[in-house]
Write a structure and sequence with these properties.
The structure is a homodimer of 330-residue chains.
Chain A lengths: L1 H37 L2 H6 L1 H4 L7 H4 L2 E7 L3 H11 L5 E8 L8 H6 L7 E5 L19 E5 L3 E3 L1 H11 L6 E3 L2 E6 L5 E4 L16 E2 L3 E5 L1 H6 L4 H10 L3 H13 L4 E4 L4 E3 L17 H15 L10 E5 L13
Chain lengths: 330, 330
């Protein structure tokens, strides 16, 4: 019996050892949890794709940007613009989103007139959709994306400066075309531009969006765009409009800041009238602005709130001579 | 003997328990260490005073700023300016650094012409020193400091806008007077302004400092300034100059960014000629600019490196009408 009794503690100690190690393991697990919880997570949570590096970035790709240009029914303008962009500093690659469904891409013409230092990739689309340009293209190797409409020409100098500004505000849309929303007394929002009075008191104006038809933004946002509610895609496809408004909502939600930073362009021009196709952009449609106000209100419902914030900041290049003979109008 | 033997495990278990708890305690200590180490420390380490709230901030003090103005031999201008600042929105308090050693402060005149909504505190100094204005004044209750020279007038609109910009760049000096340093081939630095060619390639100019004689900055930097090497104070006192250059070094070191953000003023004027004292500022001294280049090189030695970074960003208010009849020159 004594013998028996005296064996007991041995087992007890075995159990203690077991309990001891398990407790230590639990503590360590808690540690791991606490650590991950306490890491500077605000940014990570809100903009995973800005911190993650999905593709290994080659050195040039770090101080460079990719031009994404969607084109429809303006191949003559497209070729003019592609020529212009061959000479832009820091341009890593051009991705042309080819919305001319069933039409042959002008690759032969392009190659026959080479050599071209900046590679151009044509992405042939099967459906002519506004949001085709907002795909997370596998060819995209840079963190910086320059998105341009196929009827807009911006001077190389403006692009170089805006890129340097984007590098200082990589979470935001840094571009040349500001817009705003206004809340009416009824609570319904109106979309517009300079013609609308900004709510901010005092002199001056404000903006709450920067259009992506002439802007730099982080490629991570293209990844984020793939994760939006179906209703957002439906809205864009139904209207063939508002993809840029949706992007501003996405960025404002991610950052909690104003979605855009407006860089005052020295020379930006609309080339629409230069096309032989005679095709004029979607924004000439009578319902264009009505649609955009409609989209703002729809997006507020979808995202259950208005994330857009106003900004009154306009950035221009210090000491840059502003030629009087420049047409600054768009 | 059995009894004796059977007691043993008890003690053993006591020791185990002791060891167990001590191990847990050690693990927990390690956790604590790891946590503090892993907290987002870059900012905290570099700018403790921007994160710390040394004084409990009253609600108004959070959306307000304190004007610190040093005055010497220009009491007539001082009173003009104090009148102007009574009407500035968001101004919480005025701290006048009274460098007229032994002279009576104009408090009676000031009070006899009241009431004055914004309190004015006169800080009588015992020595006439340039760096008197860079004390961590106990009367300072706001995070934002507006520092102005006693011969400079900036429009209320410019101040209101610049304050809103500072709230978006609280780590930097947000002001109206940009300057730059240039590295000569010999490695010696030269201090200057627009007349010097900026090293950056391309058109436009750059700046690497924003003078604190007309700027907003975080009150935490006044605390930081008290912790600088003695050699910095000696340099400022020896030259009666360069306190603003030293502040730009301090901020650039703290942030790793450009020390300043330049806001283009719509109306800023120098009132120096309006004083009856006939006193003209230190910067008229023949050696003024030579001293400032000398200071830049000295500070590089003291801080063992050149922390100043260039910026080409100029901020102005979006949509603000720029009156042609405004004198924009300083």
């Amino acid at each position: 019996r004594y013998f028996h009794f005296c064996k007991l503690p041995g087992r007890v100690m075995g159990i203690r050892l077991l309990r001891f190690t398990s407790v230590v393991i639990i503590v360590l697990l808690l540690v791991a949890g606490a650590l991950t919880a306490l890491l500077p997570s605000i940014k990570d949570d809100k903009m995973p794709n800005l911190r993650r590096e999905p593709k290994a970035l080659s050195q040039p790709a770090l101080d460079a940007f990719t031009l994404i240009m969607q084109t429809y029914n303006r191949t003559d303008l497209l070729l003019k613009l592609l020529n212009h962009y061959q000479a832009i500093p820091h341009l890593h690659k051009v991705i042309v989103v080819w919305n001319n469904v069933g039409e042959k891409i002008p690759e032969d013409t392009w190659n026959s007139l080479g050599p071209h230092p900046v590679p151009v990739v044509f992405k042939v689309q099967t459906v002519n959709r506004m949001r085709n340009r907002l795909q997370n293209f596998p060819e995209l190797e840079t963190k910086a994306v320059l998105m341009m409409d196929d009827d807009t020409l911006v001077s190389a100098h403006d692009l170089a400066f805006a890129f340097s500004v984007w590098q200082q505000f990589p979470e935001q849309i840094v571009g040349f075309v500001p817009r705003k929303h206004i809340s009416t007394p009824s609570g319904v929002y109106t979309y517009g531009s300079f013609e609308l009075q900004s709510p901010g008191s005092g002199k001056g104006d404000q903006y709450s969006m920067v259009l992506i038809g002439a802007a730099f933004f982080h490629s991570g946002y293209l990844e984020d765009f793939q994760k939006q509610p179906e209703a957002v895609y439906a809205l864009i496809d139904e209207t063939q409009n508002c993809d840029d408004i949706a992007m501003n909502f996405l960025v404002a939600k991610n950052t909690g800041k104003s979605s855009g930073v407006f860089v005052k362009p020295v020379d930006i021009r609309n080339l629409e009238k230069d096309t032989n196709s005679g095709y004029s952009g979607m924004w000439h449609r009578a319902e264009h602005l009505l649609q955009r106000s409609y989209c703002v209100n729809k997006l507020v419902n979808i995202y259950d709130g208005m994330p857009l914030k106003y900004s009154n900041i306009m950035i221009s290049q210090f000491g840059f001579p502003n030629y009087a003979n420049h047409k600054n109008k768009m």
